[in-house]
Amino acid sequence: MAQVYGQHENFDTWMQQLIAQVTELAQQRSSDLVELDNQRLHNPDWFLQQDMLGYCTYVDRFAGNLQGVKQQIPHLVNLGVRYLHLLPFFQARCGENDGGFAVASFDQIQDGLGSIDDLLELTSALRQNKISLCADFVLNHIADDHPWALAAKHGDTRYQAYFHTFADREFPDQYEQTLGQIFPQAAPGNFTFNPELQKWVWTTFYPYQWDLNYSNPEVFAQIAIVMLRMANLGIEAFRLDSTAFLWKRLGTSCMNQTEAHLLLQALRDIIEIAAPGVLLKAEAIVATADLPAYLGSEAQGVKECHIAYHSSLMASSWVALAEQKVDLIEAVIAATPDLPAQASWLNYVRCHDDIGWNVLRAEAAGADGDAQLAKQRLKHAALFFSDQSASYADGLQFQSSDPEAVHGTVGMAASLCGLVHSSAAPDPIVAEVTELSIRRILLMYGLSLSFGGIPLIYMGDEFAQTNDRSFLDDPAKSMDGRWLQRPYFDHDAQMHLHDMSRCSSQVFAQLSELIRQRQQLPALAANTARQLLSTDSAQVLGFVRGDVNSAEHLIYLSNFSELARTLDAEKIVRQIPFATNRQVAYVDVLSGELIGQKIDLPAYSQRWLRLLGA
């Protein structure tokens, strides 16, 4: 903390007060949570095992309210879920609130979703079923009707110092020269004039979301204490929202600044003192090269977050579908370092947010750093998934005001993969098209399950739910295309899982089998080694997980092409040191097929190969 705040007046007093508050909250943890803390201290790899599986959803869209979520625990257990991320459920701003990410209170539950008592009941029930609850913790900003912002508007100078405010446009205009724009259509610019303050307020996301001023040590202390209060409610993981934006520096993008990392490291230290069973997850949607820092550095003895979203892997897998070649995924994997101890990637296919293609600019530029090539490739992917005349995909552009820019893409995974109906039996005429769509869905999830990290199922993907365009009829939502991928949970599909004529049932059964197989494969734990394999095919991705010098390894192969591919098994196997000088036989654990001299990969298929008898 001294590195960030040491020059502030009364630093020592401030630090002592913070330690006292942290100590008090640590002593307030319930006996159940203290027991959980102790279990995890003795087993720090608890969240790295191959049976760790996440699920992400909105409370209201999944089950109505927190009590409804409790009733859905059997569904989560049936899937194999061990980690449930409920998107924002604390009190949000009245009116527009960015899907709940404009937080008006850290101590109250959103109207209609329940109460703090309901949350305590839910966390207890989840804990009994070995499911950890993850909640969003919005670090970068709060709503303009949060008590801190209201006090600032009413003239309280203490709370005005919680925010970045400017009397005129001089500094905002200087900052804007190097800042990007998150929502260029809905919320252009990064500063908003507030008539009550008669000042410009820093608002990176929407005008009603005021960025917090972390150069003020009181802001950090308040946020740290809020986090511990939430942890004492039984929340076992925090998705730290917008971590890349925490520190502002003139002349930079105000992302990934050194001080932002120091603040996250301090939060990790506080958690390890007061609630060591709790995980921190960095929501840093940044280039591959900037990702590792959010997990800390084992060599330097630095611990930061336990988990970080692997946004580059997600985006590159969609590019691979669009281009029917895997070189970008291979480049991302090659650039992905080994994980520090007690750390994991969060692997996802889709989420509540858009697919941001720009995280891949470095990989798409190739070895020559060709920025124009990168732009061309990423624009092609964006067009592929947002223009139905260009492909099978049914998505939309997201927040693009510049026709020359690479816009984001929104849409449910099944719709982006070409599935038209999820809960109905497919028309025989389009049965082949439907089959290919289902294969694409499973291909994307197979990579997420195999890569190494915690795979995350986004709400409804287990039933191949498709886009929900009803948001277009709601004026409060129609300006935000991300509502396209926020459907209500398909209870009808859930009730008819026995009907295998339905696409929803087929996807559920096959995805469940992938998950079941993963649970039995130690080589697929988060922290086992990964090595790319040469497949001699631009369309086939290959890597090996686990110890390549022993029998404890697994070969992953996937075909991102609409055409079948055949590989020479010997060329694949001889890249595995353990198998090079031995007579070995591999079996595909997904099909049970024994592998011979050739490895056949039908369109959009995958194989998980392990040594026979291992």
Main β sheet profile: 8 strands, parallel, barrel
In spatial order, strands of the major sheet run 1-2-3-9-10-13-14-17
* Structural class estimated from helices and strands: alpha/beta
Helix content: 25-40%
How many helical elements? 22
Q: Indicate the radius of gyration in whole angstroms.
A: 24 Å
Q: How large is the share of residues in beta strands?
A: 15-25%
**Mean pLDDT across residues:** 94
What key phrases describe this protein's structure?
single chain, 614 residues, alpha/beta, 8-stranded parallel barrel, 5-stranded antiparallel beta sheet, 22 helices, 24 strands, 16% strand
Textual characterization of the structure:
The termini are far apart. This protein has 22 helices and 24 strands. The protein is globular, with a radius of gyration of 24 Å. The protein is α/β, with parallel strands linked by helices and 614 residues long. The strands form seven sheets. Strands 1-2-3-9-10-13-14-17 form an eight-stranded parallel beta barrel. Strands 18-19-20-24-22 form a five-stranded antiparallel beta sheet, covered by helices on one side. Residues 56-518 form the Glycosyl hydrolase family 13 catalytic domain. Pfam families: Alpha-amylase (PF00128). InterPro entries: GH, GH13_cat_dom, Glyco_hydro_b, O16G_dom_2. This is Amylosucrase.
